[in-house]
């Protein structure tokens, strides 16, 4: 592995001459703002003017206040909605023509498609599509074809497609969404890494707060949206089997019922809400104390880009059971920092989770290795620096951004 001097972010910003370069970062729904804070701060500290574009929402307002960035509120539907999508495309084009940014970064399926199309029409000179995952992986039939066309079009409009993980890059190429020359990863992956000062081993009052006895009880945890694609049906079924042999176990669900296309049905929601051994917290702004209350995390996702909740759990020093699905498979070193199981396999979840619950020494060893891996590869400071250096390098080149030119650039290297 090449070693590079880590250029301080302020030095990256000092390398610019002339006006402050302007970047527009676009997403579909304001809830994605949850993962933006450090990334935007690093860009601002590196000397960029940053504008965030999203559908309206309280999380967008909170981001604007906390990170001191400009925001553009453009309504976009997460579902396929031709008339609303056309209106959003026109609004995106008008705003981009008006502010004339030096670069754009769009992510999430709808904003990725509409934002990249609008950027081409508006003549934005540096266009980046950030692929956070592939929704089409869990789709079938006509819907899968439409989602593939959307991803392919967004990638075709971009100069660079940043992928969240190595397996996502491999899958995007296998599905012929883009060439390998256009697909890139920053560092070892992840969109924003982990704040290892916030997420660390230690005591927590979460068990006491939710009435979980300190002695004798074990806690299996989950953090994220409560949807089908996250594997919640399999998790609930597996947990009920685990209770048959380990009746003192609790399931701590840290997340909310998301009304997306893969929303849970009403019957399963009711089972979760009334289950005596399942604790559902709803949305939690700071989940760090919740991780410290868990013995292990289970993330049975059917698809991912790169699940940051796994990295947060690992930084807290607990092992993780997750799946071999795209993205998730990169977040765990199987047998060392956690266990990987086939997606959708309830019995495999039961076996892996039960084996760790029965072996505290193994959990401790895995947790120690998991934290060490996050500290080495996925600290938020490192990912934020790579992001700032990537855009500095992208904006400093005056060459035509062809696939050959892009493939020759060293995106992991600090700006020199």
Features:
alpha/beta; 16 helices; six-stranded parallel β-sheet; 416 residues
Radius of gyration (Å)? 21 Å
Number of strands: 13
Number of helices: 16
Please identify the structural class as seen in this structure. alpha/beta
pLDDT below 50 for ≥5 consecutive residues: which ranges? 1-7, 412-416
What characteristic shape results from the CA principal axes? globular
| Distance between the ends | 18 Å
Q: DSSP strand (E) fraction?
A: 5-15%
Helix and strand string, N-terminal first? HEHEHEHEHEHEHEHEHEHEHEHEEHHHH
Largest sheet, strands/sense/barrel:
7 strands, parallel
Residue share in helix: 40-55%
Query: In order across it, which strands form the biggest sheet?
Result: 3-2-1-4-5-6-7
Estimate the mean pLDDT confidence.
89
Characterize this entry briefly.
With 416 residues, this protein is of the alpha/beta class. It has helices spanning 9-14, 37-45, 58-67, 82-99, 109-122, 141-157, 166-174, 206-209, 232-245, 266-274, 288-292, 308-315, 346-357, 360-377, 380-396, 403-408; strands at 22-26, 49-54, 70-73, 103-107, 127-131, 160-163, 183-184, 218-223, 249-254, 278-280, 296-299, 320-323, 338-341.
Written overview of the protein:
The chain has 16 helices and 13 strands. It is of the alpha/beta class. The strands form two sheets. Strands 3-2-1-4-5-6-7 form a seven-stranded parallel sheet, sandwiched between helices. Helix 12 links the parallel strand 11 (296-299) and strand 12. Helix 5 packs parallel to helix 6. The radius of gyration is 21 Å and the shape is globular. Mean pLDDT is 89; it is low at 1-7 and 412-416.
């Amino acid at each position: 592995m090449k070693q590079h001097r880590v250029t301080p972010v302020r030095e990256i910003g000092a390398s610019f001459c002339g006006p402050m370069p302007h970047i527009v970062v676009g997403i579909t729904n304001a809830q994605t703002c949850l993962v933006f804070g450090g990334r935007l701060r690093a860009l601002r500290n590196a000397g960029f003017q940053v504008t965030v574009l999203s559908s309206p929402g309280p999380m967008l307002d909170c981001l604007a206040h906390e990170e001191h960035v400009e925001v553009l509120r453009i309504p976009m539907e997460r579902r396929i909605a031709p008339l609303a999508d056309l209106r959003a495309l026109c609004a995106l084009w008008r705003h981009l023509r008006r502010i004339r940014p030096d670069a754009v970064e769009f992510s999430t399926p709808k904003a990725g498609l509409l934002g990249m199309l609008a950027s081409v029409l508006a003549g934005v000179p540096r266009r980046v599509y950030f692929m956070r995952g592939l929704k089409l992986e869990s789709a079938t039939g006509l819907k899968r074809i439409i989602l593939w066309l959307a991803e392919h079009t967004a990638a075709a409009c971009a100069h660079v497609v940043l992928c969240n993980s190595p397996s996502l890059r491999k899958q995007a190429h296998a599905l012929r969404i883009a060439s390998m020359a256009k697909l890139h990863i920053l560092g070892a992956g992840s969109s924003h890494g982990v704040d290892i000062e916030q997420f660390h081993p230690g005591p927590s009052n979460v068990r006491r707060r939710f009435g979980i006895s300190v002695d004798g009880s074990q806690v299996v945890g989950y953090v994220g949206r409560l949807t089908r694609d996250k594997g919640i049906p399999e998790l609930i079924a597996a947990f009920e089997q685990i209770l048959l042999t380990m009746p003192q176990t609790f399931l701590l669900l840290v997340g909310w019922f998301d009304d997306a296309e893969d929303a849970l049905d009403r019957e399963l929601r009711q089972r979760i809400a009334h289950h005596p051994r399942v604790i559902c917290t709803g949305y939690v702004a700071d989940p760090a104390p919740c991780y410290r209350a868990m013995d292990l995390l289970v993330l049975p996702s059917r698809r991912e880009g790169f699940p940051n909740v796994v990295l947060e759990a690992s930084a807290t020093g607990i092992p993780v059971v997750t799946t071999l699905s795209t993205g998730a498979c990169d977040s765990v070193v199987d047998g060392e920092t956690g266990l990987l199981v086939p997606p959708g396999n309830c019995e495999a979840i039961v076996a892996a989770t039960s084996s760790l619950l029965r072996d505290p020494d193994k959990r401790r060893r895995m947790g120690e290795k998991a934290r060490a891996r996050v500290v080495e590869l996925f600290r938020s400071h490192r990912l934020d620096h790579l992001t700032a250096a990537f855009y500095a390098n992208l904006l400093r080149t005056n060459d035509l951004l062809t696939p050959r030119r892009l493939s020759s650039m060293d995106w992991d290297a600090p700006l020199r």
